[in-house]
Design a protein that fits this description.
mainly alpha, globular
């Protein structure tokens, strides 16, 4: 069994943890606090790290639970993701195409933000973080089948809502 290093094994996860917390809370400052709290909790359990089967999944689980606790406490709606999180535009496109692409990305993010929490978390972990179904199931404490169903339903809802909004020019 390899020795777990906070600097080499846990700290590199902080950006992924932030994106997960942001996807759940929809508040960048709150997401930063949650990541910091996650890292503190994990550090405080350093004596038991060797007992943890999958440290990465454990980190994501702690982060997710803290984020869910946070939204339960606040129980109000927040603004969508920061626009600064948007991907850099492809420079081969003209400014008009870049604007359309940015608007479409923003629209999809808003649609994702409105999904039920489990679908939103599954899509975040799978499509944005590249996690396997098995890892997502472990992080969210649901079966792999439930992960697949949530991703399928979430993607269907995104596609349907995107087409509706695009067709009505909203």
């Amino acid at each position: 069994m390899k020795k777990i290093s906070f600097r080499n094994d846990i700290l590199p996860l902080k950006n992924q943890l932030y994106r997960l917390a942001l996807r759940i809370t929809l508040d960048s400052a709150e997401a930063e606090d949650i990541v910091q709290e996650t890292l503190i909790k994990i550090w405080n359990r350093r004596e038991t790290w060797e007992e943890i089967e999958n440290m990465e999944a454990f980190c994501f689980t702690v982060c997710r639970n803290l984020a869910l606790d946070s939204i339960k406490r606040q129980a109000n709606q927040h603004d969508s993701l920061d626009e600064s999180q948007m991907e850099r535009p492809d420079n081969t496109r003209n400014p008009s195409e870049q604007t359309i692409q940015r608007d479409q990305i923003s629209l999809v993010r808003k649609i994702v933000d409105c999904l039920p929490e489990k679908q939103r978390s599954c899509i975040q972990l799978r499509d944005f973080e590249g996690k396997s179904y098995k890892d997502i199931a472990m992080i969210l404490e649901i079966s792999e089948e439930q992960v697949k169903v949530n991703i399928f339903r979430g993607r269907q809802a995104i596609k349907q809502k995107f087409i509706e909004l695009e067709n009505f020019g909203v």
